[in-house]
Design a protein that fits this description.
Number of strands: 30
CATH class of the largest domain: Alpha Beta
Distance between the termini: 54 Å
Amino acid sequence: MLEVHEKRSISSTQLFDMNPIPKDSMLQLRIGLTQSNLDRGYDYLIDVADPSSKNYSKHWTVDQVVARFAPNRESVDLTMEWLTETGITDVRQSSNKGWILLNAPVFQIENLLNTKFHEYSSADGVVRIGCEEYSLPQHLRQHVDYIFPGVKLSPPIKRSGTRKRACFGRKSPSNVAIVLNTSSSTEHCGTSITPPCWRALYDIPEQGNVSIPDYTMGVFEYGDTYAQEDLDEYFAAYAPYVPTGTHPKLVSVDGAQAPVPTSSDENDGESDLDFSVVYSLLGAINVTLFQTADTNATLLDSLLDAIEGPYCAEQELEAGFHCGVASLPSVLSISYDTPELFDETFLSQKRACNEFMKLGLQGHTIIVSSGDYGVASNPSFGSSGPCPNGCIPQGLNNTGEHSFHGTIFSPSFPTNCPYVLSVGGTQLSPGQTVKDPETVMNTDRFIIDNCSSPFFFASGGGFANYFPRPPYQNAAVSTYLTKYAPSHPYYYSNYIDVQDRTTTIGHNGGVYNRGGRGIPDVSANGAHMLGYFGELNEADGTSISAPIWASIVALINAERTAHGKSNVGFIQPTLYQNPQMFHDITTGGNPGCNSTGFPASVGWDPSTGLGTPNYPAMLELFLGLP
């Protein structure tokens, strides 16, 4: 007996043109097997991450992680038996044991899964393969996470030349004569942020005062590529202690190249921004760049393939692809996201989030920007129809078309995952100095098609629909909800039932999931950064905040290494148990979805988390831990 295993939560009809695939076409399919012991993953992680545990900082090896979470033999045998009985013979298991890989004609796979596969063509010329739903034998459902491609679409089989994605906001600074003279001053930090401003705000030591081991910092770039000319201009103007030509070590995840000329369509400024922040705070250290070229591929599959191989079909890899061979630094900064209910399915997000849990077990800290649209997601997704606001429409159960215009708050992936450190944004205002308290990042920044008024770049925050609140957040988030939460109607999410598409998302007119993982965890300055992106520009966004936090964690790891201690790894339990290490942000808010969003408050809040870092206090505490 077949049962629906996965079904698209939002109809594809307005986002794509859908055309059937020729029945005799060959299709490569991957079956993600259910892994063992995932129900204990959180407990394993807390055992090495909670400072009160006797096993604090005793991180696991790669082999220990693989052995503990490998699918059980029954899952492999039952899946192989099912495929053999249906006449599919070109089958094998991946080297990391997590996937069954097969090749078969489309008609055979459609019969196998009781579905129809289509080509999904988007407005920019990209074509991907997938289906709206698929079914599995009832006895197999507990043994399979999800099938790819399926509801989760394939990487592009055809693509346009480029697809630029604005990951942060930028504009020409209002007074170039002033900002060109701020490289060593904090005088204009209220309007023009340079490295001395960050150091003064958070008491970060001058570069060179801490010896940082090689390749302890990694940066992930998704479709955008840095230009060496831009970095050199920035170093000369604002970080003269970084030599001209300083650049990261390239790990080309999917054959991508770096650097590119400033004029290249592949250089939109995001990568320039990340490396400008990291090098200006850490100096000319060895940084690893995980570069992927394909902005239309699933956001993190290529990255996770490079470092762990969880999605690889190794025998079909093209030249230049990495599969489980790249060494991940102790800290990884990610400044990209996708709407939680848009491009990634719940099952694929859950699997990727569990991969981050495994990395935390091994002592890695994964740091992710929380987004730039307040309680909404990027409004550029699904932009047909009325002016999109990046929010989920009410009535998901009955929605046949989707313009990404609604009233339900829309968090993003991967910042919704409880195993990454989610970083929101703050800002100083004109006339303020580094001695003044910051407020929530909220800047008037840009206009998109079909919209007459500008959107605000505001600190991403709110509550996940796909992941429940983790225990390490309970006390802080409960206090906010009890004392400071606005009167927005809410619901408790049951995710989405894959068999009949029923959901409590938006139930009774609610606009946020009161039981979800709180976003962000922490924050840092994300407004008015000066940089070179082809020319002198000013940038806003949590894309600035995330590498600031990554740099701070790298400094703390370096200090712990000098004292014979291990990396901090999964850092959240320690942070939430020690709120005194933060500058609390208590003013401002993060509007979106036709609402005022969530206001900042005393303690944790869904716009700035626990607050901004106090580096000396953090260093003292972490050096005092085993």
